[in-house]
Amino acid sequence: MLKKLGFLPIIGLLQALLAAHAATLPGPLVDVAWLHAHLDQVQVLDVRDDLNSLTDAPKYETVGGAKVLGQVGGYIPGALSANFWALRVKRQLGGKDVDFLLPSAAEFEEVMQASQLEPGKPVVVAPTGDDATSLQEAALLVWELELFGMPADQVAMLDGGTHAWIAAGLAVDDDAIAPMSSGHWKAAPARADMMADTDQVRAALRAHRHLLDARPLAQFAAVDHTPVVPVAGRLAGARPLPAELLYTRGADGAWRFLSAAQYRTVFALDRVRLPAHPIVYCNTGQYAAGAWFVLDRILHHRGVREYQGGMNEWVARGLPVVGL
Length: 324
Known about the structure:
By secondary structure, the protein is an alpha/beta fold. The chain is built from eleven helices and 15 strands. Strand 6 and strand 7 form a beta hairpin.
């Protein structure tokens, strides 16, 4: 047996050893208690849009005479770090530079290797949990991990994020994360069943197939818009799937997803019914990723594809939107 093992490539042997000591994820979401009990059996991948907060101390507020966590500082011990802003890239469209677009497999692989991610061991993505936006950012990372080849049962999200971890009285580290080497995680070609490009969205519009707009309701109604997208409007025929319906703030101040039963109640409402095989979009991908996580991972509503370019790419290509 030892002679046979001697012929294995070193990386392959390491992968086998990691798999032998890896945890089985209980589902798309894990809670603080589960992660604390299995911390040495998973890779925690912290994702946030402010990397400076990794070395800050947590910030507390006084509410009703009690000290409560106001903002996450530090990170879960042993966590790897992914920069949220590196999950999207700038490309040329029609002679113009357009930011916040989907990376290629090679570009995403480079980001994950820089984070020291390794294959063969489950990943728990940890948002800050300070706000609903952090859950959407984590969902975008989960979506891209699956898009580029990671099996769904090998990646989950920490519900409530690092905020819930700190609020539970667990310690965090605040030393600078300075990787000395790169990881060996490899990206596969993007899965066509998870994404829709602009041409496919246009075809869906012509066929009157259902599009779900995952932005805040004011943006869907064209009374507001983000600075990234210079016009107010939506794609013709889209249905609203408002971000306001998808997340809740717990008593500990951490933002979480609803339960599957709660989501089923929400989607039973007359104007929020889910179509078959929808394409979900937003402005630049993160709202849509949060909606995808709810529909695909929590509710197992299959056939959901994300138009990651969203309104950002659509408008940059000079395509029409509808408003009030």
